[in-house]
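Sharing a chain and its predicted structure for anyone who wants a worked example. Both blocks are below, sequence first, tokens second.
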Amino acid sequence: MCIIMLVMGNEGIKFICGKPALLCNDALVIADIHIGIEREFNYKGIRIGSMVESIRQELLQLIEEEKPKQLILLGDVKHTIVGEEQPDLLSLRNLLAELSGYVEVVVIPGNHDAGIHAVGNATVVSSKGIVIGDIGLAHGHTWPEPHVMNSEYLVVGHAHPCVEFIDSNGYSAIERIWEIAEADKETLLERYPDANESIKLVVMPAFNTLAGGTPVNRGSRKNMLGPLFKSGIFKLDGGQIFLLDGTALGSVASMPRYK
């Protein structure tokens, strides 16, 4: 499989070409699989079959090709925040059980993951993040622990970054992207006095294609959810963005903006 070396820490981050996934040392990292999201569309009259099988096949293919020692699920493993439907819980439990037969599964809970401890077949760690080598990992919906901010890179999900293209006829296309942004040192040190001033933020695209997202070049980014995105700790408008195939699009600020 094609590997894109967009970012490199001392320990190494490798983006997998064409996939919303990266390798962090010996760990395969993905974010926002949102098991059960199709049920929300069904309630609104849009009939969509279960996405679990396609997600399962894609994850098993990645595990077979990359042979990681760990699979890290970077939050929002399930979709419904409370009152999870039993069929979705069963699907998630079966999925984690199967994946655990191939690789150690670690879950960093996101804002949709209430009750995830009860699902089993995975190691559930703090929602405030973990560190692997010089790379911090968190979902992104809450403030990370101070030691996570001492890393060279902070990898998060939650925001579902994407970009919108509109041609001369008004037709639009929305594509998932990676975003890499530098820290605003003054704002960073106000919140985290002992943080690494050179830390960079890596925002992962959502793994589930139905998870959607607000394009970075549409509207105001002040409405993004989560303190990491609202606080100004990272210079999001100056962030560099890349399509899943590695195509560099430049900075967010350089992209045409749409209302």
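Comments welcome. The longest strand covers residues 172-182.
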